[in-house]
From TrEMBL, chain A:
The keyword Oxidoreductase applies. It comes from the Bacteria. Residues 22-138 form the Aldehyde oxidase/xanthine dehydrogenase a/b hammerhead domain. This is Xanthine dehydrogenase family protein molybdopterin-binding subunit. Keywords: Molybdenum, Oxidoreductase.
From TrEMBL, chain B:
PANTHER family: OXIDOREDUCTASE WITH IRON-SULFUR SUBUNIT, OXIDOREDUCTASE, IRON-SULPHUR BINDING SUBUNIT-RELATED-RELATED. Pfam families: Fer2, Fer2_2. This is (2Fe-2S)-binding protein. Residues 56-132 form the 2Fe-2S ferredoxin-type domain.
Length: 744, 210
């Protein structure tokens, strides 16, 4: 490969593709350890109250059972008693459940015991023999019933500058006095992440004070910190391995009770313990997108200028942790409105804690905002795209800062052409194909271009290949592949000669893979580490070669077993000579954001265009076309980035048309418990999603110009579909999902 | 559990049968004893005896290797593959036959391995994702999945590929719509469906032997 053949932007195949298609990729329940034992959780059958007794005799005597652990006999977890230090994120107030510590039940199916046996079959059987008695208390699991008790998050109460505080620009609730106004309520139900890999952990105490866990996590460092704190261990005594993560979509951003349970169990039986949740348990104890009520008021002038928006929301959280998300963020910055009011509230219910689900609060908020934009455009008899253009902002109206980059208009144009927006009629129900009504809709998404500190280690190995390491994870976007491409360009070598290792807390540190921030953060660290490695090698070579001693690091190329200089074709030092020469050929480099965020508002943008076909008799909705366009800065790999966009769009189809977890409030327990009653999109639900990127670098987020893709791929999809359904049928559905019963 | 397919598993067919007969006699005798005594005796049965009585002989050919095993009747084919044969390429995604992550071929037919007990497949040939490639040479469907990026996290991928191969063999890959219908038992939560369909189309249209 020639150095000038740039890898960044190329549609390179995934570096771990071979492992994934041959079944060789190992996920957290697939490590072979000697003498492994199997753990199965027993969940509570009440939503609130106390455990009065647990009869574990039959379970303990069942064949193969090694232990039955509950709060009656659990060993003390030292970190559980450390007051004020909650070993988890993202609690803004409260703290996660301390499993098997006391008799208190905070949600239905809360783990009350763990059964450990020498096989899955025996552990599962014995778990059914554990009988508990309870003193139940009255529970609350319905958000609407608790709406009157909704409260401002504690973090906002404590800090007037906290973003969860009420926001006001211009006059409060000014829409109420507008000449043309709307006021609509929107509801999104609880949605569950449901990655295909069930949450799993293999816990192994390698010594009484040394713990290794193979875990489904989006952040090896965060998980290490959490469990080091739980067991009062130095962080270096805890190792977290997450080489492959079978999807997560946010649900592995938090440390959960089953992880603590497996670690306790491994301590008790003094063997490695494997624990994998059931699909039913995935509903109850590893987070979800919270059920959220929203009200949006908007006023506009007859010529289509928004004059005021008020957006309120109440999201559910648990009784023990205050979970917050940025539901109202997009409303404050997306459109040019002189008056904007937002109010965010929480309702604490007797359910497990929520956790950010892909495009977290923004996707929830965008459903209300982008639906209301469509409603207002209809009231004004304006094309919804034209209405958005009339309220386009060239600087951030929330804080007056310039955008770092914003190519949303370009996205509008790309998407409108591809979906055939010119076919759209203003009057709903105008287009049909036999019994199928056809409609078009659009929805806009945005998410902060977040960047954090990250460190990457790079070393030249004796065989002339380069090994890079970082603790970051890859839950599916192709992190290792993107980093290999970035490294290939920085080093000037064939990507096949680079190996990027990740998913291990022992590697140089990185943040959690969440909030579309991985490439923004780890990308520059990879780039800088590679440049630093080249410079180090140049210095080593320079000891015996004057040309290298005076060369610039940018001129150094690693190719075909030699270090060469692009500025001096004659200069050449072989790796063999460099290796012989001795000396350290490794660097570890940290890259951090500077003060860019102070000067610029940095966001990724997306727009989604949907064409739907709605059967006029059955109310069946088919998404026949979906076009997603993004301004996500530089695209490192068109193939994997495109795939990520398509996946977000498919997630949006689920949000719009099928996903809803239902609780029977009488018992406070989910009645949806598997894929037969909680529907997610399957092949037949997904059209051939088309993706287009503006692919313009953002010079302010980082030197690579990336802004992030994961969230904007989903944010705005659900309202695009809901708006298309309105355009097809004239029916405005403000409570997701849009199931046939709402259309007939 | 012995990993070497050339050797019998620790509790081989005959041994398990002998133990079962011995144990049956014990149970027959216990049947004439008052219930509380039986309960006590049952509860205190030696674990090894209980383990043996729970196991049933099973002959299985997996990826061309012949196994003689002794398994619990309640062990699913999926758990046998993953936990006892260490063939973890076959994935557990729901245990209810709803997601397709556990798809394998049994005598050439695609099945959800979580929905069938291992003992139901006595004498049959099972192919898992680990047995699809020809040594180091990937199966055309595996190649096509890599080329078209027919996955993200990779967890549903083995099931998708096993299902995709069967889909083509069955003659159910005639169009995008037909592929989508006949692949709908395999959920990809990352949403790589478009790319999976493209991969299947390529293999179907490439005319290679699948």
């Amino acid at each position: 490969m020639k150095a000038q053949d740039k890898q960044i932007g190329a549609p390179m195949n995934r570096v771990d593709g071979h492992l994934k298609v041959t079944g060789a990729a190992k996920y957290s329940a697939e490590y072979e350890l000697p003498n492994i034992a199997y753990a199965v959780l027993v969940g509570s059958t009440i939503a609130r109250g106390r455990i009065t007794s647990i009869d574990a005799k039959a379970a303990e005597k069942a064949p193969g059972v090694l232990a039955v652990i509950s709060h009656f006999n659990s060993p003390k977890v030292p970190g559980f008693d450390t007051a004020g230090k909650d070993p988890s994120q993202p609690a803004t107030a409260g703290g996660p459940i301390k499993i098997f510590k006391d008799d208190k039940i905070r949600f239905n199916d809360q783990p009350i015991a763990v059964v450990v046996a020498d096989s899955w079959e025996r552990a599962r059987f014995a778990a059914r023999l554990v009988k508990a008695q309870y003193a139940p208390e009255k529970h609350k699991t319905n958000l609407e019933a608790s709406a009157s008790e909704a409260f401002l998050p504690t973090a906002a109460k404590k800090n007037p500058k906290h973003p969860m505080n009420d926001y006001q620009r211009g006059q409060a609730d000014a829409y109420k006095t507008g000449a043309i106004k709307l006021e609509s309520e929107y509801v999104i139900p609880t949605e569950v992440h449901h990655p295909m890999e069930l949450q799993a952990i293999t816990a192994h105490w390698e010594a009484p004070d040394r713990l290794t866990i193979y875990d489904k996590t989006q952040g090896t460092m965060a998980t290490r910190r959490d469990f080091a704190r739980e067991w009062n261990l130095p962080e270096e005594n805890v190792k977290v391995i997450a080489t492959f993560v079978g999807g997560a979509f946010g649900n592995a951003l938090h440390s959960w009770p089953h992880e603590s349970a497996a670690i306790i169990a491994a301590k008790v039986v003094n063997r490695p313990v494997k624990l994998m949740l059931t699909r039913e348990q995935m509903f109850t104890m590893v987070g979800y997108r919270p059920y959220t009520w929203q009200k949006l008021g908007m006023s506009a002038t007859p010529d289509g200028k928004i004059t005021a928006i008020t957006h309120e929301s109440i999201g559910q959280t648990s009784t023990y942790e205050e979970f917050t998300e940025s539901t109202l963020a997009q409303t404050r910055m997306m459109y040019q409105s002189p008056n904007v009011t937002t109010r965010y509230r929480l309702a604490a219910l007797d359910i497990g804690s929520p956790i950010w689900m892909r495009g977290p609060g923004e996707a929830t908020g965008a459903f209300a905002l982008e639906s209301a934009m469509d409603e207002m455009a209809f009231m004004l008899n304006l094309d919804p795209l034209e209405f958005r253009l009339r309220n386009y902002t060239d600087k951030d109206p929330e804080n007056g800062k310039p955008w770092s980059t914003k190519f949303l208009k370009e996205c509008y144009q790309l998407g409108a052409e591809r979906v055939g927006w010119n076919k759209r009629q203003l009057k709903p129900g105008s287009l049909r194909d036999g019994e199928w009504l056809i409609g078009y809709g659009m929805g806009v998404g945005t998410f902060g271009a977040h960047r954090g500190a990250a460190t990457v280690g790079a070393q030249l190995l004796p065989d002339g290949t380069v090994l890079l390491q970082c603790a970051t994870t890859d839950i599916g976007p192709g992190t290792g592949t993107a980093m290999t491409q970035i490294a290939a360009d920085a080093l000037g070598i064939d990507p096949k000669r680079i190996r990027f290792e990740l998913g291990n807390s022992s590697f140089p540190k990185a943040g959690t893979q969440g909030g579309s921030s991985t490439v923004n953060s780890v990308g520059p660290a990879t780039q800088e580490a590679c440049l630093a490695l080249k410079d180090k090698l140049r210095t080593l070579a320079g000891a015996g070669n004057a040309a290298f001693a005076s060369a610039k690091k940018e001129d150094v190329t690693l190719a075909d077993g030699y270090l060469t200089l692009s500025s001096n074709a004659a200069a050449k030092v072989s790796y063999a000579d460099l290796i012989k020469q001795g000396g350290d050929k490794a660097v570890t480099v940290e890259a951090k954001p500077g003060g860019e965020g102070q000067k610029y508002s940095m966001y990724s943008f997306s727009v989604h265009f949907a064409e739907v076909r709605v059967h006029e008799l059955t109310g069946e909705v088919r998404v026949s076309k979906l076009v997603s366009c993004a301004d996500a800065g530089t695209i490192i790999n068109e193939k994997t980035a495109g795939n990520q966009m398509k996946g977000g769009a498919v997630g949006g189809i689920g949000m719009a048309l099928m996903e809803a977890a239902h609780i029977d409030d009488r018992f406070g327990r989910y009645v949806t418990k598997d894929f037969a009653d909680y529907h997610v999109p399957v092949h037949a639900d997904s059209p051939d999603v088309q993706v287009a990127f503006v692919n313009q670098p953002d010079p302010h987020v980082n030197a690579l110009g990336t802004k992030g893709i994961g969230e904007i791929a989903t944010i705005g999809v659900a309202p695009a579909i809901a708006n298309a359904v309105f355009n097809a049928t004239g029916k405005r559905v403000r409570e997701l999902p849009i199931t046939p019963d709402k259309l007939i | 559990m012995a990993m070497n397919p050339e050797h019998d598993a620790p509790a081989g067919h005959d041994e398990a049968r002998r133990t079962f007969l011995k144990q049956s006699s014990l149970l027959t005798a216990l049947a004439f004893v008052p219930a509380p005594v039986v309960d006590a005796a049952a509860a205190n049965l030696d674990e090894k005896v209980a383990g043996a009585i729970e196991k049933v002989p099973l002959k299985l050919e997996v990826n061309g290797k012949k196994y003689k095993l002794a398994v619990e009747p309640r062990t699913t084919l999926l758990d046998l593959l993953r936990e006892e044969l260490n063939l973890t390429g076959t994935k557990k995604g729901c245990d209810y036959g709803q997601c397709g992550a556990c798809t394998v071929h049994v005598d050439g037919q695609r099945v959800n391995s979580c929905l069938s007990f291992a003992v139901m497949h006595d004498g049959r040939k099972v192919t898992t994702i680990e047995g699809l490639a020809d040594g180091d040479k990937l199966h055309p469907m595996q190649e096509a999945f890599v080329k078209h990026d027919g996955f993200q996290c990779g967890y549903c991928t083995p099931g998708q590929i096993m299902s995709a191969v069967a889909c083509v063999r069955e003659g159910h890959a005639g169009s995008d719509a037909e592929i989508r219908e006949y692949m709908s038992g395999n959920i990809c939560r990352c949403g790589a469906y478009s790319n999976i369909v493209a991969a299947i189309q390529e293999v179907k249209n490439g005319g290679q032997k699948v």
